[in-house]
Amino acid sequence: xxxxxxxxxxxxxxxxxxxxxxxxxxxxxxxxxxxxxxxxxxxxxxxxxxxxxxxxxxxxxxxxxxxxxxxxxxxxxxxxxxxxxxxxxxxxxxxxxxxxxxxxxxxxxxxxxxxxxxxxxxxxxxxxxxxxxxxxxxxxxxxxxxxxxxxxxxxxxxxxxxxxxxxxxxxxxxxxxxxxxxxxxxxxxxxxxxxxxxxxxxxxxxxxxxxxxxxxxxxxxxxxxxxxxxxxxxxx
Amino acid sequence: xxxxxxxxxxxxxxxxxxxxxxxxxxxxxxxxxxxxxxxxxxxxxxxxxxxxxxxxxxxxxxxxxxxxxxxxxxxxxxxxxxxxxxxxxxxxxxxxxxxxxxxxxxxxxxxxxxxxxxxxxxxxxxxxxxxxxxxxxxxxxxxxxxxxxxxxxxxxxxxxxxxxxxxxxxxxxxxxxxxxxxxxxxxxxxxxxxxxxxxxxxxxxxxxxxxxxxxxxxxxxxxxxxxxxxxxxxxxxxxxxxxxxxxxxxxxxxxxxxxxxxxxxxxxxxxxxxxxxxxxxxxxxxxxxxxxxx
Lengths: 236, 294
Description:
By secondary structure, chain A is α/β, with parallel strands linked by helices.
């Protein structure tokens, strides 16, 4: 049994006057892939944004590797080893691929040359496009860049907000292969997805979020065969 | 030869004034680029730099006064941002703009208080104020120094923004605050850095500009500030090369018009240019087109 890297305790988040997250608790084991699935507005994004420090929680605790990071600023949280690949990719369109990656390593003061090699090995397509502005890449390439940019901070935990959104099925499969590959190299992954089928297949453990609360939880396999989950999220 | 002798001083003066405008215009364009804010107080920061020089040079040698002027101006720009713009970060853009107008009048009236409304004699800067003769045209040395210094500073700034970590962070922040934060960038520090650079350049511009004039008044920043704003819009606000080229075009055109004997119309020209560019090409010469791919 490995250690808990991230622990969320009774987290409540208000967003635009409504309680988007109504007291959820869950753990992420080090080295695992954990997914939160749920419909639009279930509070998935709010949860990740709160962990990343973009939104301050109303109450609750976020513990990362034994440290309470509940009210830390984002730059402190990134320094501790958590990174978020935001929804909609949000690469910097005017910056070249290489500059996007350099921004990803913004807080690093050590040599990042090896990390360029690492992400270019993971995404050979990006290497071909090193000098291109990020905005000229295709949607799938932009998603690769967003993931590669996040990896440049050498995270211990990478959070991904809907990485498959708006991508062709073949590209989505590629993204999920990469998620497995990154995880195999020792990075813990916390994934949120509307594409529950793909997410549950890749996940070691999964939580179902329903209007700000955690409903079911279980291993990816268990939820894939659970009748309620099948009806609500897998459309069969 | 007489044509050259007659027109050269105006062209030289145009290039020189253009360089001074460029140093101010960069402050407008950089702040707009990062905050989408037209910093109406920028012209007054430029005037304040002139006032600092007047007061400091009265009691200190120039070698000490000039660095202090640069430092105080930078501090002023930094404090304005912290006190008047930062608290309004999530407010509508119009509120920040109105705050900027407020700061502009605040600085002007503070200057009015300290000067008692009298024009203050600007110190003669040795070497810069000396007259030189080139191709038979007599001019002050500052006329020749300005464009060279401007180009050096602009090249330095461009390299800084292109290659350094902070420069890349500036470009990232100017596109997307939130994602920049996710990279671990302290957005407020980057914004402060932008104001510091803008104020520093305005202070250098002020040293060069006022050397050509006898005095500074509390409203001395108004007209140059507006003209530099026009230069930034003409070049495409948000673009540094655009602001520099816009400033040189306005500086040279104004002085050519003066040379032709239509001095009264030189300011008319600048603002007519503003109207025309807004009608014909609202994004300016080098303005960014909104082609964000989602």
